[in-house]
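Researcher: Here's the sequence for the chain we discussed earlier.
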Amino acid sequence: MEVQAVGEYGRSTCILCKNCSMIFHLIIDCRLLTLVLTMIHSFLFFFKSTVKAVLLPVCQEVIMPFKIDSSFKNLKDHFSNILHVPSDVLQLRCAGNILKNYETLLKYGVKPQDIVQVDIYSTLPDLYPIKRLHRLSASQIIIVKVQTAIDQYQHVAVEMIKTDFHKPFLGGFRHKLTGIEYHNAGTQTVPKKIPEKDNIFCRDTQTVFLRKKLQQTTNTTSTQMTKIGVYVSNMTDKLITPGKYFTAEEYHAQRLNAEFPDLFWRQEQLEYINRTFCGAERKVALCELLEKETQIIASIGRYRHIAYLANQEAIIQTFLNKCSAPKTWRRADGKIIEMETQFIIRARELQNIYKCIMLKNLSQDERLDVLLTLKHTVKEHECKLTQEILELIDREVDLMMRGVKNDNLEGLRKRIATLFFHYIKTPLFNAEVARHLKVPPDPLKFYKKIYFCYSCQLYLPSTEFAISSTAHRIYRCRNCISLDNETRKRESFLKYKYLLKRLYYSEVNYEDDSKIAFLIQLQDIQYLVENIWATQSALSAWNDLNDLVLVRWDKAVEWSPWNCILLTKDEAAAHLKLTSIEVGYDPLFIHKIKHKHILAKNYFSQIPVLASFIVDDPEIGAIRQKYQEDTSPKIIEPQLPSP
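Model: Thanks. This is the structure I predict for it:
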């Protein structure tokens, strides 16, 4: 039914009532229009009820008006359209009863203006699942009591449509006192929504590929030369000579070495300041050098601490691997035999528990299993250490049950790991670890190898002292010598260390039980290279220590300071191929080398005496084994399946 009203304010049309076949044209006053529309709407909604449809299994509620005399087939068709599910697949259920297509709400005793709940689900959820509806305009019907006259009231059914559509402002005014806005007009119809498009591609969303290309541009220059009629002064010219060529790998290696601060440049800077400045300028330069030196010392300390933290866990894992490694030996036919004792198996079990303790990102149940295994393992022995570990385990479990975050438990877990590592290093609990400890369990075995450091006032094992072959007594340990070198002398033994390593490698390959080469220390190598050989090759006078090696003068005799020669790597390879020294070299050159040997023998006169005391020394054997290359063939036998 369409109702039109024409009054002093114009013509009005009711657009909510177009389902009726009758058309009434009423010319009435606009003040009566509200009452007429209310009565018509009440008549239309009198035979409707509110249906609350619940979509299963998403549990979404959809509220809508529905005629009580309409069949459920219409309700199915409505939801089949919005859910995109065939109507014969949808099933309706109300109060536990399956609703059929030809039934109505009147059959189930539903009265007009009542609210009834209907469950909707799919009989084929795998093929046609019911999904949640998005941006659904839910509606609801309420009953409003309207006063029509004095002591006369009428109940009117009003349908409320909830939508997120914002009506456009088409003009109006705002009251200055109350602030209420009055609109001249508005729209009732919700605009059509633009469907969302999927799989939209454009050029801007593609992956960007970056390409880097270097280009050397040409640079044209010109110079004015002296010629007839033109004189050009050369007083400001500079003579440029090409330097040593180095590859890109060497360049990056130099940059990497330059990033780590080095203190041994101080001597050069100090000599430059003393040679260049004087008076107040010299004091200012020395103060700047001292400030820069202080910053570099602090930076070195930070780098050392970072390196210590990074290597600490690796050192612990290496120690545990040594304890749990099986005993091996080689048979006469070349096969390797491995044997595991009960102590090795025990050490491997403790190592696995320690690895589990150090694991990160474990769930709460996994962490509790690890702590339970640790608790049963530690309970086997009763002492103060195990009691403290058990208390920390109980504390962590209690905090985990209270919901404490993992970040707040890092300190407690680190204490548990540290105490358990002390538990592993105790020979009473792990018998295999006694063979790998620096301090043996029996103090009598360690008594003869203890020495006193006069600098740090500590009693330390003999391995902590760097004894020169020319020394008569032991005064300072390695740490004190290194600290004194950093603060005063600032001497770098890095190149001499590489030179000593190359000497070890060459001597191990001879396999003639040479001992003197393994008694040489860094200070001895420095004296031998600088004072005896003048830091240069005996043949070509090449002075780069990175290219020099100390090899035997007579390869049939054991290496010693009086049976060696400093050569480059290529010269050393050619020297070792000589069958006779007298044939390969000039007599004058041989006389020069023997003179250097006499000087070295006078300075290192104590080395033969020291070497005579070394009989199957385990430290010398460890050095040999460290620098020996394993070139023996390895036999790998396939493992046959057990019957």
